[in-house]
Amino acid sequence: MSYASDKYDLAETKLKAFTRSAVRTKVMLCLLEKELNAGELEKEMGLRATTILHSLKELSEEKLVTKRDRGYRLKI
To answer: pLDDT per position in the chain (76 positions), as tens?
Structure first.
């Protein structure tokens, strides 16, 4: 496999993690502007914290979001 092909496969995996779920997409869009904790995301999105935390876990596993001292941050 070529370097370009490897990069494409990695990008495809990241994009699927982003677009497969409306909740994950909304979480990432909320985190574009600032770091937020689960409670702040809950208020911003109008969803239960457990739903948001599940999405944050998945996004963290895909290395798209990182947990910080005060909340979560989009990894760019």
So the answer is: 566 667 767 777 767 766 778 899 899 999 998 999 999 999 999 999 999 999 999 999 888 899 998 999 998 7
How many structural domains compose the chain? 1
Q: What is the CATH number of the domain that holds 43?
A: 1.10.10.10
Q: How far apart are CA 30 and CA 65, in angstroms?
A: 12
Tell me the residue range of the domain where 23 lies: 3-74
